TrEMBL record:
Keywords attached to this entry: Hydrolase
Domain of life: Bacteria
GO MF entry, a single one: hydrolase activity
PANTHER family documented for this protein: HAD SUPERFAMILY HYDROLASE-LIKE, TYPE 3, PHOSPHOSERINE PHOSPHATASE
Transmembrane segments: none
CDD domains hit by this protein: HAD_Pase (cd07516)
Protein's recorded name: HAD family hydrolase
Length: 272
């Protein structure tokens, strides 16, 4: 694994949001906000790398004083925070999405399906999950395939299974048709186009900027973050991270409620 060189500050700070940068209240603490500002002053670009769509990133980026680019929806969307504009770079093809949905229904009878379009979430009746901060974006439809819209993520919900149990079943059922991951919500899987991950999108962004992995420090807590943590020169699992992340990441920090991201950034700043 690469490592960030002692005496230099990373050029990219790549961080997940929920369970990582954000406290359990869903906010950025004053200490973390100050650490992000100090990192920017030291020359680093702050890049949010999240499962959230742009509309749910906007209200976090502004009070945190973060500008530039965010990687959203597990790598399927690149969001220009400053311009408040986004591009869907890796949608799931409709025919593939239908095939995946069929496999899900056979493997998990009664599974609830929804689609993240980048603008809103289209849900079938069995998909009962609603995110409080994003309720206005949800719209129930007869079938998620009735309308013409980009399929940024296919969402699968089952109240009878944990996310890990779902992953074991679904990843085997759909094989290489799509990328399957989860971000900590019990009973929820997130399914993207093949080859679409946070790490792939981050690598593309870094290459565009002439930044190597050794110049990246990353933070995360869930399986959809793990490839990012392994890509970065220094990848930090939060103390509250999923057990797979804790066992595989090269570094650990304190929990999201203990300002774990800020603690690492403060230490790196002191060494630079």
């Amino acid at each position: 694994m690469n490592s960030v060189s002692t005496g230099t500050f990373p050029r990219i700070v790549a961080t997940d949001l929920d369970g990582t940068l954000l406290s359990s209240t869903g906010s950025v603490s004053p200490r973390t906000r100050k650490a992000l500002q100090s990192a920017r002053a030291a020359g680093a670009e702050i890049v949010f790398v999240t499962a959230r769509p742009p509309r749910a990133v906007r209200d976090i980026a502004r009070p945190a004083d973060v500008t530039g680019t965010a990687i959203c929806s597990n790598g399927a969307i690149v969001y220009d925070v400053t311009a408040d504009e986004y591009t869907v770079t890796s949608p799931l093809a409709p025919d593939v999405a239908r095939e995946v949905a069929g496999s899900l229904s056979r493997a998990l009878p009664g599974v609830g399906l929804a689609v993240e379009t980048g603008t809103n979430v289209l849900t079938e009746a069995a998909y009962t999950r609603r995110v409080d901060h994003d309720r206005a974006a949800y719209r129930e439809v007869g079938s998620i395939f009735d309308e013409d819209h980009p399929i940024v993520k296919l969402l699968a919900l089952s109240s009878a299974h944990t996310a890990d149990e779902l992953y074991a079943v679904v990843s085997g059922a759909i094989g290489d048709l799509a990328e399957v991951t989860h971000s900590g919500v019990e009973g929820l899987l997130e399914i993207s186009a093949p080859g679409t991950t946070k790490a792939v999108a981050l690598d593309r962004l870094c290459r565009d900027r002439g930044v190597g992995p050794a110049e990246v420090v990353a933070f995360g807590d869930m399986p959809n973050d793990l490839a990012v943590l392994l890509y970065a020169g220094a990848g930090y699992a939060m103390a509250n991270a999923h057990h797979l992340v804790l066992s595989a990441a090269g570094h650990r920090t304190l929990s999201n409620d203990e300002d774990g991201v800020a603690v690492v950034l403060e230490t790196l700043l002191a060494r630079a």
